[in-house]
Amino acid sequence: MSKRKLTDQQLRRIRDKQTKASSTLNETTLSAQQEGLIISHYGQQLDVKNLEDHCVYRCYARSNLPSLACGDRVLWRKSIQENAIKPPSHDADSSDNQLQGVIDQLLPRDSVIERPHPHRGLKPIAANINTLVIVFASEPEPYDNLIDRYLIAAAHANLTPILVLNKIDLLANNSDYLTRFSHYSELGYTFLKVSSTTSENIDALTDVLVNTGSIFVGQSGVGKSSLLNCILPDAHSTTGALSNSHNKGRHTTTTSCLYELPNGGHIIDSPGIREFGLWHLDKSHVIKGYVEFHGYLAQCKFRDCSHKDNIKGCAIQLAAQDGLIHPQRLASYFSILNSFDEAVQK
Ligand code: GDP
Ligand code: ZN
After folding, report:
1. Within 10 A of 20 (CB to CB), how many other CB atoms are there?
2. What predicted TM-score, i.e. pTM, was given to this entire model?
3. Ligand 1: residues within 6 Å at CB?
4. For residue 115, what pLDDT is reported?
5. Is 237's pLDDT higher than 70?
6. How confident is the model at residue 127 (pLDDT cuts 50, 70, 90)?
């Protein structure tokens, strides 16, 4: 669904209205502060799961707070009087929703994934995440160096990558394809071969996600939504459960959602994350995604070496010649570095 872009002036007006909305709150109609977790993000409104009663409350964030994201831990206060909090009138979606609380404070984040925003610098899209699940399949074929690009992004964002080859039911007679990516296991990455259609190895995938915050990335059509449905069959019904019976409305314009796993841990899904690419990375970050190069870097005798262009005596080149670096990885390293050079020349 295409999203209408707001002008700076419109954004200012929205913020002014929000300030008015929160400033008209009578503090005596609010409970004491409680700790909560943001589980859904609908633009101006957020669903907060209260850590005490595990219920979900539709809230506004005070206007002095930074942008919030799913996975953020917050301090918030419940409205103890019906209709005490009025949504600003600009929010057409909110007409049938009573707001149930106000978010006062963002608690410190362990990590945050951000995306450039045209008017507001970087915008957070998921917080407190540690695992990047990189999903790929034989159909559609991964585009050039897709996995290595995600590994660079994961290293730069301090996320642990997990490689998931989905749709292995299509590969029954194609053992070549199954071994094509085996060097990633040799590099120490967790690499699972699964099928959301037959449920093969879905339990193993669920197990590696326990007690971690994760996001799923990969090309459109590789089966991310199918895998999420396999792992979280009740996701939609549980996240839709609002705490209050008078609260009948449900937003249709969810921008992101946090799904809790039955045995601990959670997955955040959002359109912004599905497009997760090499955001605001530059050339100097590329090598971070090549873990097997790191041990040789100090041995390179050239200062400021880019370790490419077949420079004689470069430690990375020597290691590759000795078979210590996989030729596919060296080629992808060159190719990704070159793509930065080409982008600069354009
Ligand atoms: P997404 O765009 O990454 O979320 O991909 P979807 O989950 O929408 O799946 C895209 C298509 O691949 C759908 O037609 C699914 O039925 C199909 N699909 C997903 N997982 C599998 C699988 O394990 N095996 C097969 N054969 N098809 C799958
Ligand atoms: Zn070098």
Report:
1. 12
2. 0.82
3. 166-167, 169-170, 195-197, 218, 220-226
4. 81
5. no
6. very high
Give residue-wise pLDDT tens across range 57-79: 999 999 899 999 999 999 999 98
| pLDDT at residue 278, rounded to an integer | 61
Q: Please give the distance of CA 160 from its chain centroid, rounded to a whole number.
A: 12
- Amino acid symbol at 293: F
> Which atom of ligand 1 has the smallest separation from the CA of 229?
7
Q: How far is the CA of 311 from the centre of ligand 2 (A)?
A: 7
* Ramachandran area for residue 306 (φ above 0: left; ψ -120 to 50: alpha; else beta): alpha
Q: Phi/psi at 58 (nearest 5 deg)? A: -80, 125
Burial 156-192 (b: 16+ CB within 10 A, else e): bbebbbbbbbbbbeebeeeeebeeebebbeeeebbbb
CA-nearest residue for atom 10, ligand 1, is 221
Both structure tokens of 49: 């799961």
Tell me what the pLDDT averaged over the chain comes to: 82
- 254 φ/ψ sector (left φ>0, alpha ψ -120 to 50, else beta): beta
Ligand 1 binding pocket mutation candidate from 146, 226, 231, 275 (most atoms within 8 A of CB) = 226
| Burial readout 274-291 (b: 16 or more C-beta within 10 A, e: otherwise) | bebebbebeeebbbbbbe
Share above pLDDT 70 across residues of the chain, in percent, rounded to a whole number: 79
